[in-house]
Amino acid sequence: MPRRNGSLPAFGGSGRLRQSCPPHTKPPVAAHQAGPPTAEKLSYMACIYVLFSQSTNKYYTGSSRENDAGTRLKKHNSASVKSTKSGCPWVLIHSESFPDYTSARKRELFLKSGKGREWLKLNFPKK
């Protein structure tokens, strides 16, 4: 049935909408390559560290994107970190290395939990 302006409707005799252009197809997605991480990822390490202050008799647990807890210890002892400024001097009592920062943060959050603090007290008693 023609429309008022004289054009025909877009429906064919079967009642379906006619396709004026081919359907859009997405380009194939490359499959994820399994295997060991690239060399770039292997060279990147992160760490967590536990410091102890004899002046305040408290632990401090932190993480770093660099795999060097000694550098962080120097920062904490130079009183340039607000949260540890009052406990100087700090002593490094424990550190762990991880392949990525996410893993290090998970371990740091565990050590800051109740079970983690309990583990620290058992393995590194206050003097």
Give a structural overview.
The protein is of the alpha+beta class. The chain has a domain at 40-117: GIY-YIG endonuclease. The protein is 28% helix and 19% strand. It has 4 helices and 3 strands; from the N terminus they run αββαβαα. The protein has helices spanning 39-43, 69-77, 101-111, 114-123; strands at residues 46-53, 58-64, 90-98. Strands 2-1-3 form a 3-stranded antiparallel β-sheet. A hairpin with a 4-residue loop joins β1 and β2 (58-64). The radius of gyration is 31 Å and the shape is elongated. The mean pLDDT is 81.
CATH architecture of the domain at 40-117: 3-Layer(aba) Sandwich
Question: Helix count, per DSSP?
Answer: 4
Biggest sheet details: 3 strands, antiparallel
Low-confidence stretches: none
Strand order of the largest sheet: 2-1-3
Roughly how many Å apart are the termini?
Answer: 95 Å
The CATH class assignment of the domain at 40-117 is: Alpha Beta
**Global mean pLDDT:** 81
Helical amount among residues, as a percent range? 25-40%
Strand proportion, as a percent range, falls in 15-25%
Q: Tell me the radius of gyration.
A: 31 Å
Structural class: alpha+beta
Total beta strands:
3
CATH topology of the domain at 40-117: GIY-YIG endonuclease
Order of helices and strands: HEEHEHH
